[in-house]
Amino acid sequence: MTKTDHPDPSTPDDDVLRIDDDDRYGRLRLISWWRQERLAAAKVLVVGAGALGNEVIKNLALVGLGTIYVIDLDDVEPSNLSRSVLFRAADGGLPKARVAARRAGEINPDVRFVPMRGDVLNDVGLGLFAEVDVVIGCLDNREARLWVNRQCWKTSTPWVDAGIQEIQGVVKVFTPPHSACYECAMTERDYQLLNLRYSCPLLKRDEILAGKVPTAPTIASMMGALQVQEALKLLHDMPVAGGSALVFNGVGNQFYTTKLPFRDDCLSHETYPEPIALPLGRGATVAALFDAARPALSGPLHLTLDRELVEAVECPRCGGREEVMRPRTRVRQADAVCPKCREAGRPVVVSRIDEGTPLAGRTLAEVGVPPFDVVRVDEEEGDARFFLLAGDRDGLASGWGLDS
């Protein structure tokens, strides 16, 4: 049904207020600054599909956001059901990202969802961060937040973070490279707690209580809604308070905003130049990457790894060596125990791969490079170039099979 406040049918269409009840987005279009076509063309990456992620994904679906990439490592379990609107008991054991995407797709089939069962630290290439318009972090640990923050800074992609506990919450908006960032506000205590996740040889500890934060569904709804609201403002080029935190205390029902400090020496403030697109994917060898980089660089080359690689674990007692070939954040203390003498081994950690070495014969996937990544190749003299693995672009539509 179409209604008008002008009874004269000869009134020009531009002067008529139309309310079309058959239009899914009719009420949204009544907002003066709303541009549904802009949202339909937008791309958003949602990192985390737990309690916060459920609310964010649901709200993005309701407003008809064009393409939503969802990444989460975990499966649905019974404790999620009290805080996650998109999960059901029958979903137990299924990947959170897949279930959340499927249910949100039922809410709005106009939206294209790309679920990925993976780890944002190791499975998402920098190319995806550059591809999307906004990143929304629905995370429960400092390590993942710090990683997302650094990736967004490299690509100048705005992102919205939130944290919840009990009935308290905070939402932070970051607009690189101009605002303060997540790491700017990190304290010495934050770094200490971050390092507690790792043992002396820098391998990950087993985390029995990881992500087990007490929260109510009400605070997840509130903070998730604020995250999407800030994302909508970013997508409409509206002003946002970049580098600030909106804090809510549910006990006293108090909101306040605080400006985060800007640190000139912050390690996250590295912005990459526009990368050179190569027709290579992560299935290519490191040597093939060097060959493709040769027109832009000269002399002996080396690949700088964003994710330190544990090449092997060596036993100090028996001299045994076990090949690992996994990013350091995916190797735990238990993985470093010698299978022969049960002695704690020493990891062989690699942060660069030189031309002509055995590792140069390995594929980029084998040395821990995710699909659609932007990789850095350096000359011996210090000059560097950045290359997009554009050969992986076709996998964008399916999330590179991470959910298969």
Distance between the termini: 43 Å
Q: In which order are the strands of the major sheet placed?
A: 5-4-3-6-7-8-9-10
Q: What is the string of SSEs from the N terminus onward?
A: EEHHEHEHEHHEHEEHHEEEHEEEEE
Percent in helix: 10-25%
Structural class: alpha/beta
Rg over CA atoms, rounded to whole Å, is 24 Å
Low-confidence stretches: 1-16
Anisotropy-based shape: globular
Tell me the major beta sheet.
8 strands, mixed
How many strand segments?
16
| Count of helical stretches | 10
Beta-strand proportion: 15-25%
Arithmetic mean of pLDDT: 92
Walk me through the structure.
The protein has 404 residues and is an alpha/beta fold. The protein is 23% helix and 24% strand. The chain is built from 10 helices and 16 strands. The strands form 3 sheets. The protein has an 8-stranded mixed β-sheet, with helices on both faces. Strands 11, 12, 13, 14, 15 and 16 form a 6-stranded mixed β-sheet that branches. Strands 1-2 form a two-stranded antiparallel ribbon. A hairpin with a 2-residue loop joins strand 7 and strand 8. It is globular and about 70 Å long. The two termini are 43 Å apart. Residues 1-16 have low confidence and may be disordered.
List the helices and strands and how they pair.
Elements: E1 2-3, E2 19-20, H1 26-29, H2 36-40, E3 43-47, H3 51-62, E4 67-72, H4 96-107, E5 112-117, H5 120-123, H6 126-131, E6 134-137, H7 142-155, E7 159-165, E8 168-174, H8 188-195, H9 217-235, E9 244-249, E10 254-259, E11 276-278, H10 286-293, E12 301-314, E13 321-327, E14 346-354, E15 374-379, E16 384-389
Parallel strand pairs: 3-4, 3-6, 4-5, 6-7, 11-16
Antiparallel strand pairs: 1-2, 7-8, 8-9, 9-10, 12-13, 12-14, 12-15, 15-16
Helix pairs in contact: 3-4, 3-9
